[in-house]
Design a protein that fits this description.
6 helices; 251 residues; three-stranded antiparallel β-sheet
Amino acid sequence: MSDMNSLPPEPPVGSDSQRLAKRVAALVPCSRSQAEQYITQGMVSVDGKICEVPETRVDTKQQVDIDPRARLQEARVSATFLIHKPAGMPGHCITDLLEHSRHWSGDTSGLRLNKAQLSGLQSLLPMPDPASGLCVLSQDVRVIRKLTEDSAFMEQELIAEVRDEIAPEGLARLCHGLRHSGQPLPPAHVSWQSETRLRFAVKGIAPQRIGWMCAQVGLELTALRRIRIGRIPMAGLPQGQWRFLPAGDRF
């Protein structure tokens, strides 16, 4: 997240400088507190670099710009991020993708990334490290509760790349009939998309279990990608990029 944390060089001691917030308040124009919101929400750049520290001192020769699309966000809105995790990325590294340069241009939420949104994030319904696809990080207690307490009732749609030959009645067993540790797995909707690709729509079955399920019917899982959680699809979100969950959308 180098583009968020890099600061412009401080003006030399004794120069005609002022706090960035004061400069922004004069440029917009707006109140000093509103200027601080513009800055902390990542809408202000100094000499071409985003600066989120209102106390930063700038001199008259430094270029200060406010994003023309800037709109003040609710200061206490909790953020939820939808991320297209690349295959092989460890789960604890997903937050590394949350930087301005990886924000999907197709995001229609109207929100902008700021430092406050990166604190207290929880990873929900995590994917295995080798897998790719839709992942969720959130501060929102409602989203966190929904994807933890109701996780057994949340349908997930996954695409599994497989090889080898499926056992007789294997597809039916994937849908209903497998047992793990003596307990029957919940019913699943499983169908062929091609000769090497299966679609899984499951509730109460973690993505980590898909490889085991395939092995029980003679298939080897070679790749796994999640494309939907509940009502939220990955849709056109490119790999390695993220978008906000808009305020009106629900899992």
